[in-house]
Amino acid sequence: MLTVCHLTSVHGYEDVRILLRECRSLAAAGYATHLVAPGAPDGLVHGVRLHGVTRRTGRVARMLRTVGEVYTAAVRVDADLYHFHDAELIPVGLLLRARGRKVIYDIHEDVPRDLVTRDYLPGAAKPMLQWLVERIENFAGRRFSGLVPATPAIAARFRRLNRPLAVINNYPLLDEWGSLDGMPWTDRPFAVAYVGAVSLDRGLIQMVQAIGDLREPSQAHLELAGTFAPPEPRTLAARLEGWARVRELGQLSREDVRRVLGRVRAGLLLYHPAPNNVESQPNKLFEYMAAGLPVIASDFPLWREIVAGTGCGLLVDPLDSRAIAQAIEYVLTHAADAEAMGRRGRRAFEERFNWSMEERRFLDFYSGVLD
Fold this sequence. Notes:
alpha/beta, Rossmann fold, 2 domains, 7-stranded mixed beta sheet, 3-stranded parallel beta sheet, globular
């Protein structure tokens, strides 16, 4: 039996559902499957052997210490193939290649372009860092056994490296969203939700301003689920008038996320037009659709293709809080239209945007790399 091992240094165990979903598919296909992740409980879950390493919040401590722990755990597993998910694990991937192992790099974001949006980096240093990181990725990518870009835009950049490559979409599991058991539509409070990491470039200020601008219905509020990354934006948002209409839920379990989405009337996805955001396909978009919610999303070309193409929501300028408020007001005051949008999104999830549609390509890619 071939042994495969997925590695992450960034995501805590509660955040690795995408990785665990892929590992479950591998275990079901007959691979001895392992997952190394910060905070993971040592044991067997869904046929996947988990290996926990220390979870650290500081970026420097994580890159200097957690990365080393991940490498140590990976060597201990002694797998035939390793699949890592964070750019900071590139040195680990190269070391494992030097040991004669097959290695797949799963590229969740365009890291060089993402650096432009990072407030903690000095502006003058960003162009040089972008240049350096791109060349490191290109150097390493040519030496890995396979590449898994998360979107077609990222794939276009890596295709010229002439390595085995497959775009695997991060769609939710059908069985995780097997049935719609939320509140009847007309019984739901006048609420919309955002679920995920909370930051300025994901529209925090505009969401709070928009909910504060709503005049009808007057009792409308925003359910905000997730952690602030970094924490400083919360201070800015809490000064706004609309903060009084925000219910701050913090980090939620998967069951609680489903419960929240089952009691609101729309899901918000208002990323700013940074390069990495415009070409992304956030998992929460498809989770809103799976929950049968209309989506209020940034009007990016790729998102327009999904949202307008399926008729599952409304598109807005994510920097225009008044336009966002108008979209929220429409959804909250036109219940029949909103519920119909949600049904169309749910149907599209069942027919197209779920993991079972991607699983076969994922397993075929593994077979090709291992062969």
